[in-house]
Amino acid sequence: MTELYFALGCTSMCASLVTASYGYHGGMNYEQKKKWEKAVRYQQLGSIPLLFVGNKKNKHIPGALSAAGVSLFCLPLYYYAKTEDSKFNFAMPWGGVLMMASWLTLGFLA
Asked: Signal peptide span per the entry (predicted)?
């Protein structure tokens, strides 16, 4: 399972670079690009715990929180930035809380 979280973190970081490039070249207006850049930044920040949980006891807790948080925060924000449709924005606060919880649990497990 350790390798799974590390691979997920690396894949998420790589995907953030791909989406950053798409956002830069994707033909969005200034406001859309600002939202897109925020999603990229939070995806990168949310991916970091996945890289560190491998050597922690009870690693499944911060790993799962981080993966869920990135998904619930970043995916709706990418969608909103690209389409300006806010129907999935309700999930973003929950994703943010889960990302914060992943950092806290990672810290307590140190």
From this structure: none
Q: Which two tokens stand for residue 40?
A: 């990229």
48-104 pLDDT, tens digit per residue, is 988 888 666 677 888 899 999 999 999 999 999 999 999 999 999 999 999 999 999
The radius of gyration of the chain from alpha carbons, rounded to an integer in Å, stands at: 14
Structure tokens, 79: 């969608």
- Which residues span the domain enclosing 11? 2-109
Please tell me the total count of domains within the chain: 1
CA distance 46 to 103: 9
Which residues have CB under 8 Å from 81's CB, separation 6+?
Answer: 23, 28, 32, 33, 35, 36, 38, 39
